[in-house]
Amino acid sequence: MNNYRGSCPLVLMLLSVLSLSVSAQSTATYLIKGEIRNSSGQPMSGASVCATPKQPGGRRVLGTADADGRFNIPVTNPGDYTVNHASIPYRGSGVYYPFDEYPAFGAQEVSLGRANPEAYVSIVMPEKNGTLEVKIADSSTHFPVELISIQMCQSDKPGCTGPIARSETGVYRLYPPPVPFVLRIMSQDYQPWNKVLGRNTVIKPGSTRDLTIEMRRRPEAVGKALTDGEKQPGFCLPAPVQSGPAENERFNHYPRSTVLNWDKVEGAVSYGVEVDYCQAPSAGNECLRPAPQVFPSLQGAKPITDTSYKFDFIGAQPGRWRVWAIDKDGRAGFKSPWRMFSYSH
What we know:
By secondary structure, the protein is mainly beta. It folds into 3 domains: 27-124, Immunoglobulins (Immunoglobulin-like, Sandwich); 131-221, Immunoglobulin-like, CATH 2.60.40; 242-343, Immunoglobulins (Immunoglobulin-like). 7% of the residues lie in helices and 41% in strands. It has one helix at residues 2-26, and strands spanning 30-37, 48-53, 61-64, 70-75, 79-85, 108-112, 118-124, 131-138, 147-154, 160-161, 164-166, 171-174, 181-187, 190-197, 208-215, 242-244, 249-251, 257-262, 270-279, 288-294, 308-312, 319-326, 332-335, 339-343. The strands form 6 sheets. Strands 17, 19, 20, 22, 23 and 24 form a 6-stranded mixed beta sheet that branches. Strands 9, 10, 11, 13 and 14 form a 5-stranded antiparallel beta sheet that branches. It has a 4-stranded antiparallel beta sheet with strand order 3-2-5-6, with no helix packed on it. A hairpin with a 7-residue loop joins strand 2 and strand 3. The radius of gyration is 27 Å and the shape is globular. The N and C termini lie far apart (64 Å). Mean pLDDT is 80; it is low at 1-26 and 224-234.
């Protein structure tokens, strides 16, 4: 009896140690480590490396390479992961997108578990795509064309790819395929611009070419002469008065459905709306590195005939919006000022 009683503390201690061991294993941190080098074999200091779980619903984890190109990515869950440079697109190999700095190529695959809590990968990046520096300006005023829909159409791939892009200087840096392709540029008030590039001289990886494009305004978009201080031609219709959201209004609801409202403009048959998202942080009316999110007239949406527009904003970063009236001949009026807004989450 005494021996039994004396063994109880030892049994409880063993059970406690076993429990802690199981608990430690259930919350164990796994590690993906390795190195990343460029196509010349040099370490890519500061490069972002991404580990993406293959399991549905898993979250990507990022790591940053040090001065020697080495990185560590701790992850909390076991399983299968793909590891690659964070800028490598998910599109299939051979499909080029205007703003892909690197071509798509295969990711490294690793498996983490109790028997192998660590994995090592070595990433050698391919050569960067060629660079096409495109300057786009109004053929009459030579002012920059700040907002465009841009597409690259590859003869050996179905369809065209490309986003809406903004540059206040009218200069756009593109990364084209090393094969002949059609560059297609469209904008609100301009005739579409198309040209086959690379037919005689292919833009090879690592090479750079400059291209200047002068876009001609659509006949119905030609209006009265410029007034002092304007950056673009103005037309007969005045800028709509924005009624909501208020300047610098901050929302706290989710999903981030946002409704824009403005007063009716006499003589308008429809309205144009533009929404940018900005890089945080932002102060006052400053919008850091604006990028277009909503531009219905360039995205194939139906004309806006009401004095409101609803959309879903992405992320909790700041945004800005403006609106203008369009008359029966398709002529755009003066644009309203930009108004900032943001979300708390």
